[in-house]
Amino acid sequence: MIRPPAIIRHCLLPALLLFATAAAAQSPERLPAPVASALKAAGVPPAAVALLVQDVDSRLPRTSFNAGQPMNPASVMKLVTTFAGLELLGPAYTWKTEAWAAGPLKDGVLEGDLVLKGGGDPKLGLEQFWLLLRQLREKGLREIRGDLLLDRGYFAAEGHDPARFDNAPLRPYNVGPDALLVNFKSIRLDFLPDAEGKRPAVHGEPALPQIDLVNLLKPAGGPCPAAWHEDLRMDAVAAGATTRLILTGSYPHACGERSRHVAVLDPVDYAGDLFRLLWRELDGRFDGAVREGSAPAAARLLARAESPTLAEVVRDINKLSNNVMARQLFLTLGAEAAGPPARAAEAVGAIRAWLARRELRMPELAIENGAGLSRSDRISAESLGRLLQAAWESPLMPEFIASLPLAGIDGTMRKRMNGSGAAGRAHVKTGYLEGVRALAGYVLDRRGRQVIVVFMANHPNALAAKAAADALLECAYERNC
């Protein structure tokens, strides 16, 4: 055999490698057999699905299908928001909620207004709010002779409609972002069946004076269904200065004690009513009005509450898929980048600028609120794959991956992949809406290599595609796809 000269061989080798790479990149896409079978059983056509499987240290996917197609990712969009948050704000970032005295404080009496200034804290719960008020009492404040001013100016008021997404305005996941969002403005309803088969009791916590709880529930026999709350109906009706929360339907005695959260009041009414309740419990006195406002230049800082770190907040956002906290983080990115008051446009701008600096091209990206609770959000499996690869190479990789649900262990993946080889080895964010099923994250395969996995289905039958998403995780673990 005649061998070509060395110089020709050196020229041919790169060309052959480029040809092989191009051929691999242009090879026909196909769905892994277990995934295709599960999709067929779910009634989801291949054209409605996008997926990608890629080793974290590779620039080419092992398997891809419709990977460049823009899709609705549902809550998987939180991966963009949380990774951007970690890199732009830092894992030690905290939110502040402050109390300012707009007047002289003497002998425990504030002759003027008390201003509560919100800083967008996503996790300002009942305990944290109580501790803030407790600080005021420790500073000697006993009586407020002015009004309570709520400063919500860190975020812009954009007229959030809690019924817009799915016509369920009382569900806490539909609560809009707010710079002074206390306890997700929610109330926990505790249901207690009566031993004699009479009407079950219902208690609200916190028991806000502005809410009139009207219990018209009927007791029911039989077993407790998995969806025990399906026969409950909750309606909020304005009744003068109060809001009447009317409960109708039935409650099975076999369900025992259960709880359900509702969001009834607007943020100002909720924060003001809760302040009055807790201040009274702390033996404080306040007879003024509650209104929106800001601290004058001469106001004095009295107390400050600090949130958990962003690294901890991101775990709640991703593990539990908390939409409200994701929205708070999203707007915080806008406020930190462009200054308050932050709107969605500033938050989107901050994320796009960050992606550009990271050289992560996502021309198809459409992000509405950072939580994925949107019909207009779009991203491709290819873009999610590159985002996950960038996160893997980031110094903040441990914080980011630790925030993702662990298959068969916790979060939204707690009850999935049990008995599978991928259980305990897949850190993945899930997402679903009506017509959307998605999943993206990392799998430690059976050979000990980390693999990026992305799955999205957009179709009326998409919710039935969970088995197909799980099949993709399993074949990524087995290295069969």
What do you see in this structure?
The structure is a single chain. The chain has 481 residues and is an alpha/beta fold. It folds into 3 domains: 31-92 and 310-478, Beta-lactamase (3-Layer(aba) Sandwich); 95-160 and 265-307, 3-Layer(bba) Sandwich (D-tyrosyl-trna(Tyr) Deacylase, Chain: A); 187-262, no CATH class. The protein contains 11 helices and 21 strands. It has helices at 6-25, 33-42, 78-89, 126-138, 267-281, 310-319, 323-338, 344-357, 381-393, 397-402, 466-478, and strands at residues 49-55, 63-65, 96-102, 105-106, 109-110, 113-117, 143-144, 148-151, 187-192, 201-205, 211-215, 218-220, 232-239, 242-252, 258-262, 285-286, 290-292, 300-306, 426-433, 436-444, 450-458. Strands 2-1-21-20-19 form a 5-stranded antiparallel β-sheet, sandwiched between helices. It has a 5-stranded mixed β-sheet with strand order 17-8-6-3-18, covered by helices on one side. It has a 4-stranded mixed β-sheet with strand order 4-5-7-16, covered by helices on one side. The longest helix is centred in the first third of the chain and has 20 residues, at 6-25. It is globular. The relative contact order is 0.19. Mean pLDDT is 92; it is low at 7-28.
